Structures are given as C-alpha cells and as structure tokens.
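Progress report, Aim 2. The chain analyzed during this reporting quarter is listed below.
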Amino acid sequence: MGSNPTPSATAHRAVAGGCGFLGRRTTLVVLGTNPVSSDPQSVAAIERTLLDLLTTFDLVDVLTDLPVKNKSPTAVLTTQDPPVQATTQDPPVQEVVIQREEPRTESNKPAAGWERKVVIRQSGQDQGRADIYYSYRGGPRQRSMAEVGRFCVAEQLPFEMKRFDFSTKNKTPAVGDEVASSSSNLLEVARGGETEPPLRSSDSDYEDVPDVDLAGQEFMPGAFCTEVRIPTSYKEAIQSPQATEWKDAMNEEMDTLKERRVFTEVPKPARKKVIGSRWVYTLKQDSKGKPVRYRARLVAQGHTQKKGFDYFETFSPVIAFTLVRFFFALLVVCFGWVHCHLDIKCAYLYGNLDEETYLNPAPGFGSTGNVAWRLHKALYGLHQSGRSWFVDLDATFKNLGFNKVLSTNCIYTYKNRAIVLVYVDDLAIFARDDKTLKEVIALIKSTYDVKNLGCIRRFLGVEFEQTNGRWTLHQKEYITGLARHFGLEGARSVTVPLDPGVTLISHPEKEEVNSTQYRSLIGALMFIATRTRPDILYAVTAMSQFNCHPTLDHWRMLQRVLVYVYQTKQLGLCYEDSPSQPVLRFYSDSSWASCVVDRKSWSGFVGYLAGMPITWRAQKQRCVALSTMEAEFVGLSATVIEVKWLAAICRELAWLELTNPVLLYCDNEAAISFARDHREHMATKHIDLKYKFVREALQENMFRLSYVPTKENVADIFTKSLPRVPFVRLRETLVK
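Predicted structure tokens for the chain:
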C-alpha cells in the first residue's frame, strides 16, 4: 500500500498538471484544475507553489492585468505571443480559483500592517499621474505586485493578490474612491462568492513630492543588486527599517565635520544669505550586492548661490583617463613598477573657504532657535568646493616635496621615483619599488585621512584584472547593470554597433521620444566608449547628434548599440609586456563628406604604446572639405594635437627615458605630401592656417609620418560604420 502524498507533493503535482512551457521564450500557461484535496494544508501548499512560480518567472505583474473569464476556454498566456485556443477535444479550462471548504477565521486572514500610498507627480511630462506603492510596517516601498510577492516570500508573510490594488486607470483618483482592479478575483479565496475588499487609501495617503525621472539620474549598476531603499530625506531615513544604520552614518558624518572644524554655530545674520542644507544617503555594496556600509553626506543647497556674490572661481582640474591608461601601460606593464590606489576621506572638507558663507543647521542635528552655521571649510554642494579642495591639495603636495608636471594637470612626481595621478579624492600611485611606495603613502597620510585600497583593481569606473601576467581593463559589471536598467538583456544578437546601410539623418516630421532618457543612454555609452570600448565610439558619437530631438528610429539604433555592448561585454583593453621598446604609434583616417546632411567629413585616430591602445577619438570635422586630401589633412591635424600633448609630457618626464620617436601613419599619400612640402595651388590655398601647424611639428621631428594601406589603418573604425568582417578584424586590434 502506498503512503499518502504530503501536502507539498500534492501541491506540486496539482500545479505541475496545469503548467506548460511553449515556444522559445518559455511561455507559461496556467490552467485551472479541480482541487486535489480539501485539506487546508494541501490548499496552502498549492498557493505557495503557485506563488513561487509566479515570482520566480516575474509573472505577477502580467497576471494582474488579465481579465477573469470563468467560462472562457482560452488558456491564459503571460507573454505577447498570440493566445492558444483550446480545441474541441480539450477539456474545459478555467482560470486558477483555489477553493476552501473551511469557514474563514481570524487566523487565516491576511496579515495586517500593510499601508497603501498614492503619490501624485507634480512636475515633468507625467504631471498628474498617480504612482501607487505599498509598505509593510513602514518598511521599503513595494512598487508592483511582483515586488510585493517577493517581499512576502522573503519575509514569510501571507500573500493574496486581491488585497493589493496597483490600478492607475484614473490619473488623479480621489481619496476613498473604489478603484476597479481586473485582478481582484484572479487568486480569489472564495466563500460563497464573497471577497474581501483591497486595502484602501486614507486621507493622509497623498504626498506632495516632485517628479523623479529615472532616466535623469546618474546610473549606478549597484542600484540593481539590493532591496534596501535609499532614503531621500532625513524624515524618510529615520522612519525606514534601517533607521539605526542611517543614524549611525549621520553621526559619523557629524563627527567628521566637528573634527575638521568645518563650521561654527553663530546667531543667524540679518543681512546675509543663509544656504539650506540636506542629507544625501548612499549605500556601499560588495560585488554580490550585499550592503557593506551605509553612508550619509551633509550637503549645502548650492543652487541658491549667485556667482559674483556668493562665489567666484569654480574650475577644478582632474586627470584625463587617457593618462591613466598611458602611465599604467608604461609604468606597470612595461617597466614593472608597483602601484597603489588611495582614497582621501571627505576630501572637500579640507578646502578652506575664502567667502563668508552661512548654512542652515543639518536636519535633526541643529540647535533650536535663530542660529546658523558659519562655514570655514568647503562643504559638499557649494559651487566653489571642488576648487577649494584642489587648491589645498596642490599646496600640500608641493610642501611635501612633490613636483607638479606643467604639461598637464593633476600629475605629481616624487624624487624621480614615483608618480601620483589625482582625480578629485582618488589617487593612483606608481613607484619604482615598495620602499618608495610606502614613503609616498606615509607622506600623504601625514596630512590627510587616507584609505589604502591596495593595488589598483577598480579605478574611476574601470576594473583592472590581471590574469597570467596580462592586464585586462573592462566594465562588465557596469555594462550588465546598464542593459538591465533599460531592459535589453534578452534582445536578439547583433554583430556590429550600427548597421552599415543606415543613413543617420534627422526626421522632423516623426514623433520624438523622451530626450532625457536618450541623453542618459548616450552619456552612459560614451562613458564606456571613452574608457574601455573604443569599438563603439563612432556609433555613440554619431548618435549623439540627435540629443535634442531624437525620434523612435534614433532610439532603436541607440538601443542596438547597447545590445551590442552587452553581448560583447567580455571584451576589454588587453595590456601585456612586449620585448620591444615602448614606442608611441598613431593611426589617422578620415571619411570624406560622409554626412549626407551637411557633407562634412568624419575623422578619427588611435594611439598605441608598445602595441597597447591608450588614446582614441572620433569626431565630425567642423569645416567642409573640398577633397579627400583636405579631409585627411584636417584629420591629421587633430591627431598631431594629441601627439604633441603626449610628447610634451614625455619630454618633461625625461628621467623615464622615452626617447623613441613617435610614429604617425596615414593612408592618403596626397595628404602626406602636402604635410611634407610647402606647395600651394588652387586646390590647397584655401586650407586654414590653423591646420598647417602639422608642417611645423613635422619639421621639428616631433613624429615620423608614413603611409599605411587602407586595410591596415586601424583608425578606419572611427570614421564610419563597417560591415561585420572588416569591423571584427579592426576590433581585434583594439579590444580582446
């Protein structure tokens, strides 16, 4: 005799009997069955199993929009595939209705504690739209049925979909209105056809909050890895489930402000502007998305400052990432120097303020009464804070014995044995040996509160990964988060960023898409292209021409670029040592009159150090070239600008002994001849003088200009969209 099946086994058999997977996109079909048992434990197990399926495949949102038709023989589909009609031989099909025989008691009612909020957007394109979310006992917001389901599973709470109403059919629903829900009976627990009403909003549910557009926010991939909600105000922070952690973070920030003597509490001045203050919160996470540190920053509301009254100069330089690649390839890969990454804690608070500035006390920490804070240090949020910090850093480094490189910004040398690159509060240090490295770190720590992050592994959004003596610079995590953010993880495969047959023009007669979202994606892709993926630079630069008035066609082409990057996210810059001497080698190319709108040409270049790509550019020329030679010569001048810049840095750092001449290659013999000779005739005399400095640099032996066949000119990938075969061939010389 067989034993009776357990409730869990019964549930799985009951649900599995009504589930099928059809097609390539795994369409889930949920079919109703007769109850296999009236046992309450079996019914509860069926509910849990079904909920696991729905939340696992993220189908709850789709199911809430499906109508309930108990007599319809049509199977319920959860994708956009056409509905499957039941044949005449099939048994009648019903939607999922779980029956219970026992009377409802207080013990099997849904758990209390849920609160429904309705937020009316006050600005933006969606002004007047009602956003609905639920929170459990003041916890994080659940913005969809899927989030509610996952939260209930994680917290082991009872979940009934009919108790939650995310309907937004009415743009501005009145408080207390009965809002229709197409899903209120989908997973109905029936007792004589009677159902409990969903949670309703109270008179205090409406909040007056500004519109928040996700496309306009800075993209951070870590935002997709955690369920912790980042508070947007002090009130929200102290009412969140992580209130203790946020309070500790604010106390830590206040201790730092007092330790650095950032402010002095004074009576509020009568005739001086007092700037507002607010808290900004963030969450540090590990690679798996687990919270590791809660951060709170007190910032000034600097948007109320007026230039010429509250502040004057604001410029603050940072290191160009081209030089990060250059020195990493030269010093670490070629010369074998040691390296280190330092982070200066609360860097802005070291800068001194020259202007008389007053601030409202921090929310939750200010004294009651008519008082203000007189600022002595540069607080985050002020227009002049960045410059004040850099002035202090520059003076400190000089006092410590560092020498500033005059050819560019933010490079300091120490006794011709170490080089420091500065990007705001991030420092990359390269030294000949461990002793020099420790000496430099000790000097910096003598003045600043510094966190030693060890060898360079993640710097300015780029991951530095070493495998078998070869370094790879990539952005896999950022690219993955970006594709997830825009919902393009499952897109079909593409082999090139842009279709070679596509003509890039404006379409004023077509409907425009959200330009904010378009520019957001352009900025994210440009960040990738200028850091580690030169193979998409032309595509992103070309699509950025339509930032102001993008259409749906432009948006789809831009999405294609993101899909290509995501599907090739394993590619990156590969740096490995070679036995030859480190030589700078540049390639320059132009595509004559390639823009069909204004007939301007595109030009681009790429520079290698010992075979490792370190700099590249793609841009449309500002003038209309009358010949291929002219277009190539104008593109050559842009390349020479980069050559002169790097050559000047190498001359100033003569102790690095970079004496090899720079090699420059071009695939147009007419342009090479025009650069070498001083011949003028009807076809060349109109060329602007500013482009002819190429001749002067060539005469000074700054570089050697040589011819290269077009098929071997790597810079061709920066001037046009190429077919797959030549594109892949050139891409392999850039990223691997």
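The first helix runs from residue 7 to 16. The longest strand covers residues 291-300. These observations will guide the mutagenesis work planned for the next reporting period.
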